[in-house]
User: What shape does this take?
Amino acid sequence: MKSVGKNIPRLDGYDKVTGKVKYVDDIDIPDCWRGEVVRSDIPYGRIKKINFDKAFDWDKVMTCTYKDIPGKNATIFLSDDQPILAENLVKHVGEAIVLIAAPSASKALEAKKHITIEYDTLDSVLSIEDSRKRKNVIFGKDNIQAKYKIEKGDVKKGFAEADFIVEGEYRTGFHEHAYIETQGMAAIPRPDGGLTVTGSLQCPYYVLKTLKSALLLDETKINVVQAPMGGAFGGKEDYPSLLGMYVALLSIKSGKPVKIIYSRDEDIVVTTKRHPSIVTHKTGVKKDGTITAMEIDVAFEGGAYSTLSPVVLSRGVIHSAGAYKCENTFCTANCYATNNVPTGAFRGFGAPQVFYALEMHIDKVAERIGMSPHEFRLKNCVEVGDRLSTTQLLKESVGAKECLEKVLSAADFGKKWRNNLDTCAFKHLRTKKGIGLSLYMHGGAFTGSGEGMKSEAGLRLNKDGTISVLTGCTDMGQGSHTVLPQIAAESLGVPAALVNTAVPDTAVVPDSGPTVASRTTMIIGSILVRCAEKMKKKLPDLKKRDVKELLKTYYSEHGELKIIERYILPPEIKWDQEKHCGDAYPVYSWAADVAEVSVDAETFEVSVDKLTVAVDVGRAVNPVLVEGQMEGGTLQALGWALMEDCIYKNGKPVNNRFQTYIIPTAKDAPEWKTIIVEKPFSYGPFGAKGIGELPLDGGAPAIANAIYNATGLRITSLPITPEKLYSLYEEKNKIK
Ligand code: MOS
Assistant: This one.
């Protein structure tokens, strides 16, 4: 009974493409009030006074401030520094101060116009540079939300052995998630006096945790249910803890169901973004291409509250030296507070920034010693037996070199790269072609021994003879609620059609940990394999008759059968969090990208013609979904590389709509080729590793390197706009 490795159509696909599915905004809740949020429009200041217009009719309008929160006024993450509603200080534009609910959306919006806030403004800090110089201290003693140092070997010795030392600085800006469905949640009073909170969210148990602590309720009184989602990409990992509290507070105070659905501009202004970054590299290299030392500094902008930044920075710095052999590495990292919107989880989680820097820098290093980018990478790429910058020994499942070899040959890289260099000068061609390469990896699951926490998942035999996967991990469009049943079905030895995934409702499913960190397939999948082994022992021999009938009969004779198991961390993982030393991740997924671009010599517009991607996922449980992940994520990387530019003025995004914040559409999508490499991981279900975030890590530098191959212009900050390309061209050619 084979299910793993099959292109089973997405179980949620039909309802989504036919428009049947009900997203939170579509759910019809009788007598539901609509909520609005009054927010700070200054980046930093003290709240002097909140004015409720006396001339306005406040009848049938409910308002809440922080004073209505019975418990802790904070979202519960790593440091709990972010208030749910501002008390007397606001630290960024868009910070929530007053909540409003009214019987209709228009009434709520009307009420919002009659609330004004008076402030004493304070001097804000709005960039990494100003925060680093401590223009003002806005966070702790030094504006630093997190810092790390990773040391291996002796960089001084490494630099002494080098023939050349190559330095570089690389920058990236904010990046908007741009999920199609904006954030939205609803709170609905239950007949038993409890409250259900539902909506577009990645991590039901995260939301529950904040609700419990702020409302002083236990899980018998409150449950969180994931509604079908139109995308998240990390943007619905932390933020729904705030929005869930808004609707819950309003619902409890008014006694009504309350729904809040963000408009696009509100969503862009107030929700988290990818961390802006400044990454510097200093690399020692010998004439023969041996890398003798790598010194890397990573600076991220954390925004007003630290939320998930400490773990984003940790993942960033761990990946910053990439997939290269080097005896001596020294990596430092700091996350700086500013009065911009808090930055948070976004597909890649710190890795895209460091790979943009590293993979552009590696091309520069190779050029310095006269080696081609592919020969340099082939020579230095890690294999089984090598150690990464955290000293982690790579024992198995290392497809880096095979990905590199396959992508190079599929794209005919070497020949094209040389040809592009040889064609006549840029100005004599209307269109210049370029080809670029990147090599990258992504650690699967939580950092270090993080997966040692008690993640649970299960299988339940239903009355109708079907089996449901029980997990708190959600499907936000990545396909996990199709892939997990495939794993369970094959482990049980039943047809895939008999297995589905239960709706993630904290009253029904166990806490599987959050749906993040490329962990769901690998971690939850492996728990399900163990659940299936146990379940199989209880059930009759499933090979013999009509399986569904057999299961139905079993149910009618024995009742519901439910097996819940916990994740078991591979025993040999050793991690020193203090030193950031050891086995940073149970395993890595590996990939290499080749981008082929055309650059218009008059307008400096770039179009990406083709992307060839080779990816080692251990085992592709559903190959079409793996391809979909690679294409979707790489297209997001393309947008980040070439067009997505969050422009902030005084802490406020200027381009807060899709007319001005430009993301790639189907017309910007290049020709794709995805090559799947399978180097199984012995602790992964059927050998599978994570694929969620990896796709966003490598596209931008491959495109940037292709632009360099085409034009000789190395743009070291994203996005690579025609304006930036032209300025650099002007500078290089001394055009006045
Ligand atoms: Mo994620 S970016 O770990 O939701």
